[in-house]
Each structure stands twice: as structure tokens, then as C-alpha cells.
Design brief:
Layout: H1 2-11, H2 40-53, E1 66-73, E2 88-92, E3 95-97, E4 99-104, E5 110-116, H3 121-135, E6 143-145, H4 153-159, H5 163-171, H6 179-193, E7 201-205, H7 214-225, E8 230-235, H8 244-264, E9 267-271, H9 274-289, E10 291-296, E11 307-314, E12 323-325, E13 329-331, H10 335-344
Parallel strand pairs: 5-6, 5-7, 7-8, 8-9
Antiparallel strand pairs: 1-10, 1-12, 2-3, 2-11, 4-10, 11-13
Helix pairs in contact: 1-7, 3-5, 3-9, 6-7, 7-8
Length: 346
């Protein structure tokens, strides 16, 4: 079917910018006055110093690395935290790649919390309950922001000790009609505090802000281009009354959000009760705490714009059964174009 066709294409719509590409903080080279001739020994020392200072991952010039957030759980959705680099394997278009970096920090997780809720009071109440489910679980070392409240990590940590104050603040968040812009703002907020490692976005939504039909396709593609794991908590109070056409659109949107989350390496959960909200927030928090960050330099270094499928496998030494969650791929584009898009997106 036509709908299934473009949705399958969306799963492939993750580009290298959105691949959480790891970049150096080096400034562009500038012309400088000529220096006096240096001895061969001076040149060797300078060369060695530069090599030691050279970041392991470079964007621009010749080398660039693709970074991926990977979550690994057991059969009961509990995170597995004791894996080593040799337990992982990564394939790009079926070709094994060398893992250059693998890190994991269970002591800290980072995400932005966003709200995509219409002006319907029962769903707003559920959204506040879901948000509190996240905030009450954060630790002092976690880096959580709420852009719609202009709340940085310290402000959110302050909310964690005062449920009433937090929920009163949430009342001031207006209804949203632009899911793409909401996600983009949340990603920017997360990037400010976690430049490279383990960032994610959690969206509490009723799924009513997507415009439908072709507009949904464009919105989905724009979200996937961001390349950050997206987690959706989709609210359904079971009492929302709408015409059949609207109900049909809600079902399509829900399916789309579930596929979007999976393609980004995240997760989407539909909740209908307080117990389900509690279980969903706990599951997502555990996934975020269990994230590994890996990076590799593609063996195919041509920036030809083609889509590259990514597959990550995990084989623990004790042969435990595991489930692996990671992005589905990226588009190989020129790193200079990546920087242009980042500038234009600000």
C-alpha cells in the first residue's frame, strides 16, 4: 500500500547529521604569517604534540565518525550494564566495522522532556502525571531539561522535590500544534548540556498535532533527520470522543509515532491509566540509564548521499538473551553540508 511504502522509506530517513555524528571542537584553519624555518627535531616534536592532542573523532577534512546510542536489555526489559567492547559488533550495509569508541555511564543520563498536548483537560491531567513520573526519578547527576518551561538541569532538579510546584508550572504550558518544532527545540536543549554522549528526547503526546496525510510524512522525515533517539508516551484516556474520521487519523498517527521511535532507536508506549503511566516512565528511564555510546569510522568513506543501513549485534560472553535498540541507518552526506544544516537550524 502507498502508506506502507512511504513509512518504510521513513525508516531509512536518518542522515549523518542525525547520526549523532561526533565532531571535534577545532576552529577552521586560518592563514597566518610565515614562520622562521624550524629544525627537523622541532618538526618531529610539534608533529608528535599535534598527534597527541588530536581528538579521536573528527568531522571535516578526511575523517568523520558515526555515533550511535545503543540500548541493551534482557527479556524483562531490564538494562544490561556490564558489556564490553568485544561484546558488540556493528555492520554498515552488511559490512563489519571497527568500533572506535564505546562508552557507558550508568551514573548519569540526559534527556529533554517535551509536551505535545491539545487543549483537552483529561489528557492534560494524564500528561502532568506522566511528567511527574519522570521528574521524581531523576538523580542529581542526571541532565534533564524542559524547554517549554525554560527549565535547565538545576531548575528541573528543584522541581523533583516539590510535586505541587512542578504540576502548577506545567499548567502554564500552552497546547501545541507543531510536533516537529517541539522536537527540534528539545534536541537543541539537550545538545547544550550533553554535547555528544547519550542524549535523547522524551515527548508526552496525545498525537493530535500532526496534520495528517502528506503532512505527517513531512513531519516524520523532519524528526528523523535530527538523529536523536525519540521516546513517545502516547496518552489515551479512553474517553476521548471524536468523529470516525478523526479517530482513524489518531490510529494512523499512533502507528507512525511507534515506527518513528523505533527507527530513531527510541521507544513509543501507549498509556491509558495511572498504572500504565508509571510502568511506561520506569521503562523509558531504565532504557536511558542503560545507553551505550559507540562510534565508528565507515569503511565506505564516499559522501555519495546514499543510505547506509546500520545493524548492531550484542553477544555477551555468557550467551544471555538480549534485545538491542539502535538507529536503523543514516545518509552519507558531505560533512560540510552537515555543518551548513546545523547553522541554518539555529
Amino acid at each position: 500500500m502507498r502508506t506502507q511504502s512511504w513509512i518504510l522509506n521513513l525508516v531509512a530517513a536518518v542522515i549523518a547529521t542525525s547520526a549523532t555524528v561526533i565532531a571535534s571542537a577545532q576552529e577552521p584553519q586560518k592563514q597566518s604569517p610565515e614562520k622562521p624555518a624550524e629544525s627537523a627535531q622541532d618538526n618531529q616534536l610539534e608533529s608528535k604534540k599535534k598527534e597527541e592532542e588530536k581528538p579521536e573523532c573528527i568531522l571535516g577534512g578526511i575523517d568523520y565518525y558515526i555515533g550511535i546510542n545503543v540500548s541493551v536489555t534482557d527479556g524483562n526489559n531490564r538494562p544490561i550494564l556490564d558489556l564490553a567492547r568485544e561484546d558488540f559488533a556493528i555492520f554498515e550495509n552488511g559490512v563489519p566495522q571497527r568500533i572506535a569508541i564505546l562508552t557507558h555511564d550508568n551514573s548519569s543520563s540526559g534527556f529533554s522532556l517535551a509536551f505535545d498536548i491539545s487543549d483537552y483537560e483529561p489528557l492534560k491531567l494524564m500528561a502532568r502525571q506522566a511528567a511527574w513520573g519522570f521528574v521524581r526519578q531523576i538523580r542529581p547527576t542526571d541532565e534533564v531539561t524542559i524547554p517549554q518551561l525554560e527549565a535547565d538541569c538545576q531548575a528541573v532538579w528543584g522541581f523533583a522535590s516539590d510535586e505541587r510546584r512542578f504540576k502548577n508550572a506545567l499548567v502554564e504550558i500552552p497546547s501545541n500544534d507543531n510536533l516537529v518544532g517541539l522536537v527540534a527545540d528539545a534536541i537543541r536543549s539537550t545538545t547544550k548540556v550533553r554535547q555528544l554522549m547519550g542524549r535523547a528526547v522524551v515527548v508526552i503526546t496525545d498525537g493530535l498535532s500532526l496534520p495528517g496525510a502528506a503532512g505527517d510524512r513531512d513531519a516524520a522525515y523532519a524528526i528523523l533527520r535530527k538523529g536523536t533517539p525519540i521516546y513517545f508516551i502516547i496518552l489515551d484516556d479512553g474517553r476521548y470522543i471524536a468523529p470516525p474520521a478523526v479517530q482513524s487519523r489518531l490510529l494512523r498517527t499512533r502507528g507512525l509515532l511507534i515506527r518513528l521511535a523505533a527507527a530513531s532507536g527510541g521507544l513509543a508506549l501507549v498509556v491509558k491509566s495511572e498504572d500504565e503511566i508509571s510502568a511506561a516512565t520506569e521503562r523509558i528511564i531504565q532504557r536511558l540509564k542503560g545507553q551505550y555510546m559507540m562510534a565508528y569510522k565507515p569503511k565506505n568513506d564516499r559522501n555519495d548521499g546514499s543510505f547506509r543501513n546500520i545493524r548492531v549485534t550484542v553477544t555477551p560472553k555468557d550467551n544471555r538473551k538480549v534485545k538491542v535498540f539502535a538507529r536503523s541507518g543514516y545518509y552519507a552526506v558531505d560533512p560540510e553540508k552537515i555543518e551548513e544544516e546545523k547553522i541554518n537550524d539555529k
